[in-house]
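can u do me a favor
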């Protein structure tokens, strides 16, 4: 992540924007890399939704939905 004049740039920011862009209302999506960092109790609240091709990324990325309710 690159911070310049109060704005953030870089691949991580682009990935977050792309993932957020395909999430539906009240849906939380995370990348496989984020999923791997979670503790087991949180991993158990996630469901793999498969690989998606995101604009600006050469390879398909595996995404997970975080299962939650209000």
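np, heres the sequence
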């Amino acid at each position: 992540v690159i911070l310049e004049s109060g704005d953030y740039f870089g691949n991580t920011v682009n990935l977050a924007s792309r993932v957020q862009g395909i999430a539906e209302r009240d849906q939380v999506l995370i990348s496989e890399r984020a999923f791997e960092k979670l503790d087991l109790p949180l991993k158990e609240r996630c469901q793999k939704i498969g690989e998606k091709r995101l604009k600006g990324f050469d390879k398909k990325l595996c995404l997970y939905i975080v299962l939650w309710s209000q």
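The longest strand covers residues 46-52. hope that helps!!
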